[in-house]
UniProtKB/TrEMBL annotation:
InterPro entries assigned: Aldolase_TIM, OxRdtase_FMN_N, Oye-like
Domain NADH:flavin oxidoreductase/NADH oxidase N-terminal positions: 7-336
Superkingdom, natural source: Bacteria
SUPFAM superfamilies: FMN-linked oxidoreductases
Protein name per Swiss-Prot or TrEMBL: Alkene reductase
Name of one Pfam family that matches: Oxidored_FMN
C-alpha cells in the first residue's frame, strides 16, 4: 500500500481548509427517536467519533414537517432541532472537525402517515411506486399532491429558513440534497414531472425550482459554503425512471453550476445497474470532471485504493465514504496506518439506540482488546 496517499492531503474547500480529502457521506441513520425529531447526545457522540474526516456531511435533515419521509430523522426547522444540531457542531469543532448539514425534502418519497393523512407534495401527481419507512414499518407510497405555485414558493422559503437555522447552529456550510429521487430530482425527471407551467416541460423549466432555491439560499450562505449533491445515473431506485433526457439534463445543470462559486459539487457513481440502459453513464467522475470547473466530490462504493486512484487520476478532488465510515469511525487514521477495515452490520443501519451506531471501536482500541 502506498505511503503517500492523495486522500490524506489537506485541501482548500471554499472558505475552509480540510485536513484531508476523506469525506463522511450523508447517511440516514434514524436515531432521532424523540417527539421533537431533534438530534440527541447519541448524535453528538456519533459525529464526534468521526471528526477525523476532512469534512462531515450530516444525514439528510428535513427542512420542514412536510419534507419528512422516514422515521426518526433529525430535522432543522425548529428551535429544538437547531439547538440539538448546535451541540453536534460544537463537539465536532472541539475535535478540529468540519461539518456541513444536508438540507432535505423527500417530496413524493413519503406517506400520508407523516402528514396527518394528507398526501405528500411532489411536482406532479405521479406515484413513485416505492416504499416509505413509516412508524408502522415500510408502506407503499401513494399518489402525491401536485404542488401549487404557492406551495413551491413556500417550500423554497422552508429551505431558506433551514439554511438560517443551520447558520445559527454553527455549521461550516450546507449541502442541498438534489439527488436520489427526492424533491429536486423529481422536478428534473420527465417521468415524475408532468407539469405544463414554468416548472415543467422543457429542460430549463424542470431545473427552475432548483436554481431558484439555490439563488435564495445563497442570500443566507456565501456560495463557497454551499455544496450540491446530484445523482445523474440513478434508475429504478427511489421511484426514478431514467429517460434519454436524463444525462443531457444533468449536463445542463452541472454546466450552469459553473456560474456559481460553490464549495463543491457532490456526485454519485451509479449504485444501480445501468448496463442495459445505453443513455446512462457508468463513470460519472470521468464524465463531469472536464465539464465542472469547481471542486468535485465523488462517492458510492469507493475503497482506500480506488479513492486514492480517482484523486491521483485527476477525476475528483474529494471522496465521500458511507458504509466504511459507519463501521470505522477513525477511517482516515486507518488509511494512514493501512489498517484493516471493520465490517458494518447492515441490520442496525436504521434501528434506534447505540448498537451499530456508536459502538464501533477505533483501530487503536481494537488492537488493545486483541
Amino acid at each position: 500500500m502506498k505511503t503517500n496517499q492523495p486522500l490524506l492531503e489537506s485541501f482548500d474547500l471554499g472558505a475552509i481548509t480540510l485536513k484531508n480529502r476523506v469525506v463522511m457521506a450523508p447517511m440516514t441513520r434514524s436515531r432521532a427517536d424523540n417527539p421533537e425529531a431533534a438530534p440527541t447526545d447519541l448524535h453528538v457522540k456519533y459525529y464526534t467519533q468521526r471528526a477525523g474526516a476532512g469534512l462531515i456531511i450530516t444525514e439528510g435533515s428535513q427542512v420542514s414537517k412536510r419534507a419528512v419521509g422516514y422515521i426518526h430523522t433529525a430535522g432543522i426547522h425548529s428551535k429544538a432541532q437547531t439547538e440539538g444540531w448546535k451541540k453536534v457542531v460544537d463537539a465536532v469543532h472541539e475535535k478540529d472537525g468540519k461539518i456541513f448539514i444536508q438540507l432535505w425534502h423527500v417530496g413524493r418519497m413519503s406517506h400520508p402517515d407523516f402528514h396527518n393523512g394528507d398526501k405528500p407534495l411532489a411536482p406532479s401527481a405521479v406515484n413513485p411506486n416505492a416504499k416509505s419507512y413509516t412508524p408502522e414499518g415500510f408502506k407503499d407510497t401513494v399518489e402525491p399532491k401536485a404542488m401549487s405555485l404557492e406551495e413551491i414558493e413556500e417550500t423554497q422559503q422552508e429551505f431558506v429558513n433551514a439554511a438560517k437555522n443551520a447558520k445559527e447552529a454553527g455549521f461550516d456550510g450546507i449541502e442541498i440534497h438534489s439527488s436520489n429521487g427526492y424533491l429536486f430530482h423529481q422536478f428534473f425527471n420527465k417521468k415524475a414531472n408532468l407539469r405544463d407551467d414554468q416548472y415543467g416541460g422543457n429542460m430549463e423549466n424542470r431545473v427552475r425550482f432548483f436554481f431558484e432555491t439555490l439563488d435564495k439560499v445563497k442570500e443566507v450562505w456565501s456560495e463557497n459554503r454551499i455544496g450540491v449533491r446530484l445523482n445523474p445515473s440513478l434508475n429504478g431506485t427511489f421511484g426514478i425512471e431514467a429517460t434519454a433526457d436524463t444525462i443531457p439534463t444533468f449536463d445542463h445543470i452541472i454546466e450552469r453550476l459553473n456560474n456559481y462559486d460553490l464549495a463543491y459539487l457532490h456526485l454519485s457513481e451509479p449504485f444501480t445497474d445501468v448496463s442495459d440502459i445505453e443513455f446512462l453513464e457508468t463513470e460519472i467522475a470521468k464524465r463531469y470532471r472536464p465539464r465542472y470547473k469547481g471542486n468535485l466530490m465523488i462517492n458510492a462504493g469507493f475503497t482506500q485504493e480506488t479513492g486514492n486512484a480517482v484523486i491521483e487520476e485527476g477525476n475528483a478532488d474529494l471522496v465521500a465514504f458511507g458504509k466504511l465510515f459507519i463501521s470505522n469511525p477513525d477511517l482516515p487514521q486507518r488509511f494512514a496506518l493501512n489498517a484493516p477495515m471493520a465490517e458494518w452490520d447492515q441490520d442496525t443501519f436504521y434501528t434506534q439506540g447505540p448498537k451499530g451506531y456508536t459502538d464501533y471501536p477505533a483501530y487503536a482500541s481494537e488492537k488493545q482488546e486483541a
